[in-house]
Amino acid sequence: MKKIAIAAITATSILALSACSSGDKEVIAKTDAGDVTKGELYTNMKKTAGASVLTQLVQEKVLDKKYKVTDKEIDTKLKEYKSQLGDQYSALEKQYGKDYLKEQVKYELLTQKAAKDNIKVTDADTKEYWEGLKGKIRASHILVADKKTADEIEKKLKKGEKFEDLAKEYSTDTRSASQGGDLGWFAKDGMVADFSKAAFNLKTGEVSDPVKTQYGYHIIKKTEERGKYDDMKKELKSDALEQKLGDNAAVQEAVQKVMKKADIDVKDKDLKDTFNTESSNSSSSSNGSK
């Protein structure tokens, strides 16, 4: 999951609930032992989650001014999470509401855009990535539970329907289905034996007959094999960037480059050091574990 983080959601929800003055005397809970005021709640929440939540809220405002995230992008990412997480996603939506999840996804997409804009991929990075592909192939698959469904999909493929569309429609492997069945690059020992044997025996662009494994029935399409570096360089640069975008530390470092150019003045004395270099990096790392 990339990453609706329960911890981050909880922390931000806490601060949102306590969006009031720390001196607010409004009673939110009564007990025989005494009342709890909004001010007390805010003060305690600020101590435990204030810096990390303030970091996210400010980052989102700064990044939102510089980068554009569309409703379509947010909805696509939410559908991806819903497909990947199933019941867990439904529980998050029920607890926090769809609007709140949209806000979290928007923040994630903003940080990704900042990362793409600020992370540099060198020729050395690209060459290293290419070297790592030795002995690997790239393939996609459509995974279904029974042979009958696999045969139906095979017929549709022979009639000319797109593999990627059928993967999104039928595959029970939710992680790859949202990517049109793409499994990325893998070595022979990276998959179960029967799957690997079938995949590595295919020619590039060729589609297998249904292959049975312990997970069900796979229809496999070999999409790429490692070629000459100069022929693959442009594509590899993009893949190397995607790999770096999966490194949270690299993403946060890129976000910090944008934040350093922003004029941020924290008025709360308890949180005034939030965006000092060391404090900010610490808070971002904690909040960015999503």
Would you mind describing this structure in some detail?
The protein is of the alpha+beta class. Among the domains are: 46-128 and 238-262, no CATH class; 135-225, Chitinase A, domain 3 (Roll). It has helices at 6-17, 38-66, 71-85, 87-96, 98-118, 123-131, 147-158, 163-170, 174-177, 193-200, 229-245, 248-259, 277-287; strands at residues 27-29, 36-37, 136-144, 182-187, 211-213, 216-225. The strands form 2 sheets. A 4-stranded antiparallel β-sheet has the order 4-3-6-5, with helices on both faces. A two-stranded antiparallel sheet has the order 1-2. Residues 4-11 and 278-290 have low confidence and may be disordered. Plays a major role in protein secretion by helping the post-translocational extracellular folding of several secreted proteins. It holds the Pfam family Rotamase. It is a lipid-anchor.
Q: Main traits of this protein?
A:
single chain; 290 residues; alpha+beta; Chitinase A, domain 3; 4-stranded antiparallel β-sheet; two-stranded antiparallel sheet; 13 helices; 58% helix; 11% strand; globular; disordered C terminus; peptidyl-prolyl cis-trans isomerase activity; Foldase protein PrsA; lipoprotein
Write the layout of secondary structure elements.
Blueprint (H helix, E strand, L loop, with lengths): L5 H12 L9 E3 L6 E2 H29 L4 H15 L1 H10 L1 H21 L4 H9 L4 E9 L2 H12 L4 H8 L3 H4 L4 E6 L5 H8 L10 E3 L2 E10 L3 H17 L2 H12 L17 H11 L3
Antiparallel strand pairs: 1-2, 3-4, 3-6, 5-6
